[in-house]
Amino acid sequence: MHFPRLPDWLIYAAVVVALLIAAISRQERADAPPAPPPAPEAEGAALGPASPFDPAVVVEVSEKTQPGAGTAFSISQAGVWVTARHVVEGCRQAAIVVAPGKGVAATVKIDPQAETAILTTDGGVQALPLGLTDPLRRGERAFHPGFPQGRPGEASSRLIGREKLVVEGRGARTEPVLVWAETGRTDGLDGTLGGLSGAPALDDAGRVVGVTIAESPRRGRIYTTSPETTARTLLAGGRRYIEMPGVPMSADNYGRVADDLRRSLRVAQVVCLT
From CA 206, how far away is CA 153, in angstroms rounded? Predict the structure, then answer.
């Protein structure tokens, strides 16, 4: 039995292919394995310092913007209060409301570098405790007692991270802020949290860690000043402030604690008189 003779070109092609396969198989491969997916920032991780690379939120402030009503809180029994800058900026006469239809005149001092203002009155009430030096952690709670929509109310939140507040127009500046995800609010309080501006952001020990300055209703976000900004504002007021413990707060009791703070006027409504 005779096998057919293969063409020479087919034999040569088979030899070349075999040589190529042998050469390729002997090449060294040192490929790295696929990169792992980016690790999410774990809840409870320490919040890093402010950075130029933090996301920015831009706010346009018109020269015609009118001050309104908001919230203030006591930081000295001598009659020193803190509120959000936009609540009283351009206000001819600010007042702390101490009873229905009754207020005490307050002198306003704006922090030119931050979204905060210092109010001074003749006499005051017990100060809220401060917690501006302890490190913050993602996911930790904050509680915001005040006067949303001009009525007593409060909100709770969890810390997401940092952003930069970029103010354009009047009072142009850039400052670091904290971003919180809203997790709860007063029963029956629907819509905007307007009027809560200037409220303290309290940690679970009842201590001030920032000043509530804005909200993003569509995203469910609450913005506060950073602890370092708040501390600088207080020091610029020319007084020394001592950190101390407060009333423990939780998702179960923050409404009751907020009511007590308002009744004692440690958290009060601030208005601009016309």
Answer: 16
Query: Distance of CA 77 to CAs 19, 112, 261, Å?
Result: 91, 25, 14
> What is the distance between the alpha carbons of residues 210 and 228, in angstroms, rounded to a whole number?
9
Task: Map out the domains of the chain with their CATH numbers.
Answer: 56-60+70-273 (2.40.10.120)
Asked if 156 and 184 touch (Cβ cutoff 8 Å), the reply is yes
pLDDT (average), residues 68-97:
93
Q: Is the dihedral of CA 262, 265, 266, 267 positive or negative?
A: positive
Phi, psi of 133 (to 5 degrees): -110, -20
* Structure token digits, residue 14: 């088979």
- Give the CB-side neighbour count of residue 157, counting CA atoms within 13 A: 31
Question: Does position 83 have pLDDT exceeding 90, yes or no?
Answer: yes
**Looking at residue 235, what is its pLDDT?**
80
CA distances, 185 to each of 142, 146, 220 (Å): 12, 11, 11
**CB count in 10 Å sphere of residue 260:** 13
Q: What type of residue is 76?
A: S
Distance, CA of 266 to CA of 132 (rounded, Å): 18
- Model-level pTM? 0.80
Phi-psi label, residue 191: left if phi above 0, alpha if psi -120 to 50, beta otherwise: left
- Average predicted confidence (pLDDT) for the chain: 83
- What is d(CA 6, CA 190) in angstroms, rounded to the nearest whole number? 88
